[in-house]
Amino acid sequence: MSFNVLAAVPLAVQLLKSPLTPRRGELPPLKGDFTPPVGGGGLDETPPFVTESVEAYLLVELLNEKGEVINPAYRKYFVTSQGDFEQIGNANEETIDFGDECTQTGFLRFSLVNEHDQQPAYFDAFEIVHKPNTEKLTVTSWTDYYPFGKVAKTACSGAGAYRYGYQGEFAEKDGETDWNSFELRQYDSEIGRFTTTDPMGEFWSSYVGMGNDPVNLTDPTGGCTGCMAAANGMTALLNQTGTFLPEVTVIGQRESSFSFANITLPTLTMPGISMPSWVGSTATKANVFLTLATTMTGDSDPQAQAWMRARAQTKPDAPSVPIAVPATRVKDRDDDDDDVFYHYTNHQGMLGIQASHNILPNGQGKVYITDRQMTAAETFYKLFIGNTRYEDRGGYVIAFRLTNYQKAQLSYNRDEPYEYIYPGTLRIAPNNFIYSGINPFK
Amino acid sequence: MTIDTINELNALSKLFKFVKFESTDADTVFFCASPLINSVFVKTVLSLHKEMGNPIPEWGYIEQAPDRLQIIECKLQNYYIQLKDTTQLKKVIEECIFPYAYREETITRMMDKLLKL
Description:
- The complex is a heterodimer.
- Chain A is mainly beta.
- Chain A has helices spanning about 300-315, 345-355, 375-385, 405-410, and strands spanning about 1-5, 10-15, 55-65, 75-80, 95, 105-115, 120-130, 140-145, 150-155, 170-175, 180, 185-190, 195, 235, 245-250, 340-345, 360, 365-370, 395-400, 420-425, 425, 435-440.
- By secondary structure, chain B is mainly α.
């Protein structure tokens, strides 16, 4: 099988050959009718195949920021087959050049059409490459994710943020709830769980996301990590360098004739998945099953996985340059005029903090600390408002100093005389650990 | 009827703060928007600081407490009573923000957002 590629210069898409398990994504519906050409192909209008040998072809579109096709004439690259339906590309990689047609910020959309009913065709390990002479192309936006989809770091410049984030198009993020809107369910990346039960009942817990294995699995619809979605695909941010768009799998269906005109829509086996309208909108139908994972998280490529693991371990902790503490933000309100903070706890809590040097947050993600020395009775009434649930919390105390960065994270409310709130886990540096043990204050 | 100890004042103060600025339950808007609750809340906090010998707290602008502002916005967006009367809505927002001062553009922005819901 070979890939018909046209000569052009700056932007290239490399299709890297790799026998990896495909992952799946979803493509937004195309605007207008899509009519696969019969007997034509390629920009040079030279038919690259005979009808009997056609198995799949790649459609590449340039979209602007609004999702409109910039070039109304689709760029079509036909894949031909000389025998059994096998992996595309005889060489280790195939490259498509787009020339200098990427004249504005937007998206690249790839669609793969296959007429075979059982054998999948897939492009593996997409990579968008900017060649050195494309100086006008720059990275406009990028996002790093933790494995379960929480945003670790985002950078964006210019107008138009990348709309589709974690797991690609099918995990669109809701700006209000910060949930990912999968087709069937909402997903909360903070906790790595879906907010409702799994309609497909795939895992032991119906709330887990990607089977608790987000590095290796994707869940295209919120229904099933192993199920085939009706129409999957991918979009890729134009002007992005070195982005892996891992795999695109195509499963189509053909009938007795191999002519495109006789291809019919496949029977969908997965409930709840709707066929994109454009697929069946013309008499000449093509079966389009595009699958991929558009984020590193869902990639099965070893290189991508290694990259993701490395990224996942990089947490936005204290920067190397200390942040200046605003004078009005944190001020020492106790009498001893030092810079020592205290966390009152019980014996078990003290042991845990001693072992890990971490003070874990409560259910609301907060760590309460104070700068006041209190007896156990004082903590019981002043910090825990006499609630017997916390009666033993004043018996032990951790005394420590905070880094300037940590101080800047403290929230200090003027109406609170006793406590500060630290967001998230409070890590105490070994050098800042002053005391942990029985509450010594009398 | 009197409050006997500073611990009672402290506990009451914590309760008010939780209801007004920490709970994300939309139903707490019922309490947050009450001028009577606000009045008791301020009296409680002032009494507490007075008893402790602290200076009188100044709350400043709500924009300086973005976490609390965010919670207020969140609650109002999910409040089951849709407020379409701008005068009434502004009053509710002001009471929710109390005792913080606010910038007019903050109220305008919140109202625009809420009225579009």
